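Entry — protein

Goal — fold tokens:
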Amino acid sequence: MYCSVILRGAVRQTDNLYTYRVPEELRTETFVGSLVNVPFGKGDSQRCGVIVDIKDSFEGDEGSVKDIASFISSKPVLNSDQIALIDKISDRFNCTKGDVVELMVPSCVVNHKNPLEVFVELVSEETAKDVLDSEILRSAAHINILEYLLEGGKCTRKELMASLSCSAAQVKALEDKGLIRLLKESSDCEIPRMAIPDEVPEGKFTEEYDLSDEQQTAVDEILKGIDEKKDNTYLLFGITGSGKTEVYLNIAKKVISEGGSVIYMVPEISLTPQTINWIKGRLGDSVAVLHSRLTDKQRYEQWNNIRTGKARVIVGPRSGVFAPAVNLRLIILDEEHDGSYKAESHPRYSARDIARMRAKITGCSVVLGSATPSIESFYAAQAGAYKMLELKCRARSEATLPEIIPVDMKEQIKLGSGDMLSVPLRQAMSVAFSNNKQVILLLNRRGFSRTLVCEDCGEPVTCKNCSVAMTLHNNRRNGTQSLICHYCGYTVPAYEARCSFCNSNHFTKAGFGTQQLEEFLHATFPHEKVLRMDQDSTMTPGAHKEIIEKFANKEASILIGTQMIAKGLDFPDVTVVGVLGADLMLASSSFKASERAFQLITQAAGRAGRGDTPGKVFIQSFRPEQPLFKFACTQNYRAFYEQEIEYRQKLKLPPYKALGEIVLSLPDEDLLIRRANELARYLNDFLGFQDKRYQFEIYGPMPCVIYELRGRYRMSFVIKAVNKSAINGVFKRLIEDFDHTKYPMSFDNDPQDG
């Protein structure tokens, strides 16, 4: 017996199908999808791979065929539909088959038979406190790691990296400094931080609601499509508060009652204990939750429950689309417009695209839900590629859409109210507090203030490693302020800042962030409790859950934060929402800037008036006459769509043409410019000879929006073509014709910031 194996994580040079002999004693436990260790290369180093084919004979030199070394898991780790996806994903997203296997088979599965886990702990709490107080560290990641361990104590390295978005190299650097130690211990010692709720609180989470006529129509239509097994895709277009979740839960319940499985994806930022409770409360023990903060042991248990069919509902972020669901009948993408469904590091896959690819193989249905669908999805529904289902009314008859009020901040500043809270918003907040109601304030910018601006030349303080302005933050430990680069993490105390243009040390603050807003609110409403939810305030274990629970229990009357608070949260007593600094949402080079701004404002507005008291939403802007704000004020998605689709058509942007981006990056700026010009000549020559039906257009080289990033300079090329397949063809040619070590390029056939 012989088998074909794909190596997990294979690079392009080793991304082939390799034939191995199955020893006699292993043949009864060998299946397609089994995970194996195999000897590879001249030194027979042990590599992990997946069996994708089994055959009785081998045509070739039998002496060159090696035996499988051992099984990591003889029970298949991949289903047949997942194996059928490997080549398709590899072709679509310009990655190796080994990359795809790595996405489908998480490391917790590979390492399951090795129960050792790497733990991190402080060498000395006193030393760590002294180092933080001295402000000698220049890496935000290093500061965050020490603060995390001081607050939460010993934890696994994986949890630390997931919670703080830091790298293994940054953890190792602190070990080298003698501040932390790494220990290998049994995984039984793991300290769970993001536990999955075992028991769901009784009440609203378990209560079943009568469906409205609109909801029932949507449920019936989707269930009919599921029975057809024809890979139908539905766009569930419903205003905020229209009860899309109730539709999801009803169809999911029906699917699992008939022995099917459901993949239920939500944006990572929305995967809160509240969301999990809604789903587990209604669908019970058949729910598995995948989350970046799970320990390896927790993750393996959830994954194994999915593989064996014990778990029939898989809840997770974009990576959930790869789950080994048994008899997959339905895939749900809630908030389908959300940018987090697109991976921004290699492989740059789209969960929405992969959901549809998987549906074509399995015949399952896909439901895309949103109050503000992506322009591409709405266009597809208009063209008949998706089936449109609308929810035009709020699910609770007593809940009405909030009144949305634009506020001209130019006039407010003239009146002396400052640039944070306008007079109308302050008055509405006071009325809400007098009625024992709550307020949410959205400011899509974390930190204390945007940056420091040089009083002598007017330039902002920029990072020495990246061509971006640094952000001012309060130090929670000692009250001092630091400037942090949100791209590379470089940190410097504010009092040491120097202008990189004129070397002056005279600065003034520009703009404001969530921390500064929090201090302002304490001074303006001293008797009201304020909670802040942003990336900085939710780094410690359980902080996210704690903030939501406190606000839900009315332990605070004001919740401020970044986009985290705009999505998926349901607080019936919130009657006032303020969107601050709305203009900043448009201050982006992305062709999707208007779309994202409209989506975020609409989602934030949807937090108001979800109970029996009408809500008010204030949009503070220096340009309230902008059409986008007018559409947002009337919650008129269709009017916004018509304007946006006209703009896309004029500029031949998606969905009218596909867009691709090539980024070349090097540490030597002069060398980068020379090689970018060489690449430009190649691309212009190559595309000039292509068939006109591909409609190629090439732009560049041009500096990336962030030209210098982590010590590397970056140049970008943008390609337009009739479809993604044409763009992928160009990418494949570049991979074949250029030495990656001399021309380090990254490729994206669906850039979100182009």
